[in-house]
Design goal:
The chain is α/β, with parallel strands linked by helices. It contains ten helices and five strands; from the N terminus they run βαβαβαβαβαααααα. Helix 3 links the parallel strand 3 and strand 4. Helix 4 packs across helix 6, helix 6 packs across helix 10 and helix 7 crosses helix 10. The radius of gyration is 18 Å and the shape is globular.
């Protein structure tokens, strides 16, 4: 449940689109636009003075390697969750971005209401898993890429596999804890232990691992 206004930063190359987006989102309940710019270096500087909970970013900005920018933001401001909003819908590109640990990926052709829904979902510390996101997660398996991440084979125990399945089903830590008769703290530790064991940095990485190694049930690989 969101109690305070969500602090949102926006980076997009096109001024008109960015300002219209700011106007629309500012009208929504519990969303506060703290900064918006087309310049990633200006963004990095502004975030020092205008903290954000979520960054809404395009990946197509002229003369900018946005991947490096996002990595820098994650290093300097690890508390910021990233949602990509772009015209690019290539599953290979999105799949590579998921490895960074982004929390959502939307097309600029999606409905505005879906963007608001994504922001609210991510603000509640959940991944927004729409069709684009799911197809990108499934990309490795679809194109028969060798199973395993970072050269590791599947090495999760049954409890860890169950937690991974429930994460795919978009259960919260509290819901998983209740289902497995454990504490929320225990679930948090299991999730971190899985990341450490597999050399992964994000929940998205865990989901990709689960799909590639056939831990997540095929019946649930739908949107």
């Amino acid at each position: 449940m969101i109690e305070e206004a969500i602090k949102l930063a926006i980076i997009d190359e096109f001024t008109l689109f960015r300002k219209m987006l700011k106007g629309y989102l500012s009208e929504q309940e519990n969303i506060n636009i703290t900064t918006h710019t087309s310049d990633p270096f200006e963004l990095l500087n502004r975030l020092k003075h205008f903290p954000a909970d979520i960054l809404l970013s395009d990946i197509l900005i002229a003369n900018v390697n946005i991947i490096d920018v996002l990595k820098t933001i994650q290093t300097r401001y690890p508390e910021i969750r990233i949602i990509i909003l772009s015209t690019c819908t290539d599953p290979k590109v999105i799949s590579n971005l998921l490895d960074l640990g982004i929390h959502g990926y939307l097309s600029k052709s999606d409905e505005p209401e879906e963007l608001v829904q994504a922001i609210m979902t991510v603000a509640n510390n959940r991944i927004y898993r729409n069709k684009l996101f799911t197809e990108a997660l499934y990309y490795n398996k679809q194109y028969n890429i060798k199973p395993g991440i970072n050269g590791l084979s599947a090495s999760l125990n049954e409890r860890e596999k169950k937690v991974l399945q429930l994460l795919w089903e978009e259960k919260s830590n509290r819901e998983i804890a209740d289902q497995l008769f454990l504490s929320v703290r225990s679930i948090e530790k299991i999730r971190q232990d899985m990341k450490d064991k597999l050399g992964l940095k994000s929940t998205v990485g865990l989901l990709k691992y689960g799909i590639t190694n056939r831990i997540i049930e095929p019946a649930n690989l739908t949107v």
